[in-house]
């Protein structure tokens, strides 16, 4: 759909208007064109679930008032025939789609594609996802940030116990599918309590040491330079006593989803205390740069019993921003800032 056709859905376009004369029409068209030119046009390619959670009416309304227009991308038509766009927002999977976006980035350097498909791919594998955090080795006066020790098992479940032993990983272990592509399967995680049961797991997977953290994690949303942190309930600590008694591998559900908000819960202050802001700002800035991404969130936990020992356990591309408090303003400001910085670059 051309942008002009898409505009027919806009509030300011009235189909019931009186017929106009030729000159009125062309003046009207010109004015409309001028109005259009002032809009920041954001093409989006998102699943219907994502459209519902992200493009909420209040957000679209605020964006429009600030001069931002969202236009659905038609995947069945060449991208170059659509728009013209200032920004392209996307969260779709598949090789074909990645190639379309890469080609479009080459032929339309003036358009900001959020974010580059190659950089997003980095987060689709739970090993490469956390590599940047490990490489960073962030240690400041506000605290240290690392990743839990982990091991990748590509195949052969019968060899897992040996591999775990060799690597010196300490039980319990969180077993996560290696691929993190947003599919339901990629969110099917288990907790393994004993060596013998490890053979029941299904590779390819990542085995990550379980870090006790008081049952609360921090979700850090990043939108360009903006950061927002929320608390979510998480898996409870595993005590030594429990570990000595329990055997087996237990599948666990989506424990830290939006419904598990712990922001208003009555928590032990040492568990609830948010990670220091300067530490998160350093982490976010470095990750933005190292990952080459502007839209992501990360799950970070504080080792129970410490004040300043943090672990990043997960990074998600274009997460559920619709559940981030104040996302409407944060996102619109971000989109406008992108266009302004492009404009500045061009005129300097
Ligand atoms: N190493 C760990 N130590 C302690 N708890 C962990 C660890 N890894 C994961 N968890 C728990 O398991 C949950 C799910 O893990 P993770 O965030 O890696 O999965 P996910 O399916 O990618 O989640 P999301 O829905 O955020 O994408 C976390 O929210 C946390 O409660
Ligand atoms: O599409 P994948 O990569 O699976 O990422 C999901 C995250 O893992 C979820 O945490 C998001 O849901 P919550 O915001 O309810 O946690 C979920 O948010 P959504 O349902 O608004 O899209 C997704 O961002
Ligand atoms: Mg997570
Ligand atoms: Mg995840």
TrEMBL record:
Cofactors demanded by this protein: Mg(2+)
Cofactor: record remark: Binds 2 magnesium ions per subunit.
Gene Ontology process terms (BP): inositol trisphosphate metabolic process
Pfam families assigned to the protein according to its UniProt record, in alphabetical order: Ins134_P3_kin, Ins134_P3_kin_N
GO cellular component: cytoplasm
Binding site for Mg(2+) 1: 299, 314
Reactions accelerated catalytically: 1D-myo-inositol 3,4,5,6-tetrakisphosphate + ATP = 1D-myo-inositol 1,3,4,5,6-pentakisphosphate + ADP + H(+); 1D-myo-inositol 1,3,4-trisphosphate + ATP = 1D-myo-inositol 1,3,4,6-tetrakisphosphate + ADP + H(+); 1D-myo-inositol 1,3,4-trisphosphate + ATP = 1D-myo-inositol 1,3,4,5-tetrakisphosphate + ADP + H(+); 1D-myo-inositol 3,4,6-trisphosphate + ATP = 1D-myo-inositol 1,3,4,6-tetrakisphosphate + ADP + H(+)
Domain Inositol-tetrakisphosphate 1-kinase N-terminal: 41-120
Protein residues bound to Mg(2+) 2: 314, 316
Highest taxon, organism lineage: Eukaryota
Gene Ontology MF term list: ATP binding; inositol-1,3,4-trisphosphate 5-kinase activity; inositol-1,3,4-trisphosphate 6-kinase activity; inositol-3,4,5,6-tetrakisphosphate 1-kinase activity; inositol-3,4,6-trisphosphate 1-kinase activity; magnesium ion binding
Record's keyword annotation contains Cell cycle: no
Residues the entry annotates as binding ATP: 126, 176, 208-219, 234
EC number(s) on file: 2.7.1.134
Similarity comment: Belongs to the ITPK1 family.
Quaternary structure annotation from Swiss-Prot or TrEMBL: Monomer.
Name used for this protein in its record: Inositol-tetrakisphosphate 1-kinase
Species whose genome carries this gene: Gossypium darwinii (Darwin's cotton)
Taxonomic path: Eukaryota, Viridiplantae, Streptophyta, Embryophyta, Tracheophyta
């Amino acid at each position: 759909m051309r942008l002009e056709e898409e505009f027919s859905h806009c509030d300011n376009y009235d189909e019931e208007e009186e017929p106009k004369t030729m000159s009125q029409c062309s003046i009207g068209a010109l004015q409309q064109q001028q109005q259009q030119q002032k809009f920041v046009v954001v093409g989006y390619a998102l699943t219907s679930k994502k459209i519902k959670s992200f493009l909420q009416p209040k957000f679209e309304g605020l964006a429009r008032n600030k001069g931002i227009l969202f236009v659905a991308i038609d995947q069945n038509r060449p991208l170059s025939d659509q728009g013209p766009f200032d920004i392209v927002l996307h969260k779709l999977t598949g090789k074909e789609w990645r190639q379309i976006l890469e080609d479009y980035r080459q032929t339309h350097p003036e358009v900001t594609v959020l974010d580059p498909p190659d950089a997003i791919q980095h987060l689709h594998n739970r090993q490469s996802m956390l590599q940047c955090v490990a490489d960073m080795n962030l240690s400041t006066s506000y605290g240290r940030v690392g990743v839990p020790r982990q091991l990748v098992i590509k195949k052969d479940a019968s060899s897992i116990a040996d591999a775990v032993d060799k690597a010196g990983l300490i039980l319990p272990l969180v077993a996560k599918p290696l691929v993190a592509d947003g599919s339901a399967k990629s969110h099917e995680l288990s907790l393994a309590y004993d060596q013998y049961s490890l053979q029941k797991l299904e590779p390819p997977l990542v085995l990550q040491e379980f870090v006790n953290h008081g049952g609360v994690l921090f979700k850090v949303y990043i939108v360009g330079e903006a950061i927002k942190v929320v608390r979510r309930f998480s898996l409870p600590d595993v005590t030594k006593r429990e570990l000595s008694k329990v055997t087996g591998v237990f599948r666990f559900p989506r424990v830290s989803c939006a419904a598990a908000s712990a922001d208003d819960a009555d928590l032990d202050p040492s568990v609830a205390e948010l990670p220091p802001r300067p530490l998160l700002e350093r982490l976010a800035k470095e990750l933005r740069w190292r990952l080459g991404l502007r839209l992501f969130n990360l799950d970070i936990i504080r080792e129970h019993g410490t004040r300043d020992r943090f672990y990043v356990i997960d990074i998600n591309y274009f997460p559920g921003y619709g559940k981030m408090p104040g996302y409407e303003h944060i996102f619109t400001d971000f989109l406008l800032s992108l266009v302004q910085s492009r404009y500045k670059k061009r005129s300097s």
